[in-house]
Amino acid sequence: MKKIFIVISLLCLTFSLMAMDGEVVAVKGKAEIKKGGKWIPAKTGNKIESGSMISTGFKSELTLKIDGSVITVRPMTRLTIEEIAKKNEAVSSEVYLNVGSVKADVKPASTKKVEFKVKTPVATASVRGTSGEISSDGLLIGTSGSWYYANNDGLETRVQIGDSVIISDTGMVTPAQNIKANDVLPQSVQTLAEAEANSPTMTPQSLTMEDAVDIASSVTTVSINIGWED
């Protein structure tokens, strides 16, 4: 009877916790994925499962999709995917940010709920359907919804839209600072692709002969005469 109970319990746990994969949907520059102890070049369409590690180089980015959530791994970043799983009616994802930063837009798709957690050496950020950017040095910027941000001692603070909170390596929490989301925030969380799309393009123009004459005539010429006396 006891063995039957254990088997039933294990089956219930299996059905309530199902492993899932993420998928690489965009790569810019040099990015790599570590699977089974071996680094391979990242490509669009690569599957990312629990235990995988992602690394991006200088001016490089990797965009990862997990269910309806989109995570952009910023340049010079290394992170470990600790968990991607479906728990009952929620998709749960946990990543460890070794160094660098990630931009996350967390949304449910196939389920009613989504849980996303980012661990760093100094703090842990968790969210259920929102977006923002977090760095390994302790900076969290909220761009929608709200984040629960806690230091390693469990002291938690709420990060709202347009707020930035810093948790230092000693665990000190800097109170939320509003960074004028309408002005500063969009530039701070742009991906490389967004930055290129929004950058102004310079169109070379040639001068007409009339323009050249006008410019030449507007230049004042100053003559200096130098003489020597015996």
Please, what is the oligomeric state? single chain
Give the amount of beta strand, in percent: over 45%
Count of DSSP H/I helices = 4
Radius of gyration: 27 Å
Q: Can you give the mean pLDDT?
A: 77
Rough shape?
A: globular
Spell the H/E element sequence.
HEEEEEEEEEEEEEEEEEEEHHH
Give the beta-strand count. 19
Task: Give the low-confidence spans.
Answer: 1-15, 180-189, 202-209, 218-230
The largest sheet is: 10 strands, mixed
Assign a percent range to the helix content. Answer: 10-25%
Derived structural class: alpha+beta
CA distance, first residue to last residue: 126 Å
Overview of the structural elements:
It is a single chain. Strands 1, 3, 4, 6, 9, 10, 12, 13, 16 and 17 form a ten-stranded mixed β-sheet that branches. With about 230 residues, the protein is of the alpha+beta class. It is built from four helices and 19 strands. It has helices at about 1-15, 180-190, 190-200, 210-220; strands at about 15-20, 20-30, 30-35, 40, 45-50, 55, 60-65, 70-75, 80-85, 90-100, 100-105, 115-120, 125, 130-135, 140-145, 145-150, 155-160, 165, 175-180.
Describe what is shown at a glance.
The protein is an alpha+beta fold and 230 residues long. Helix content is 18%, strand content 45%.
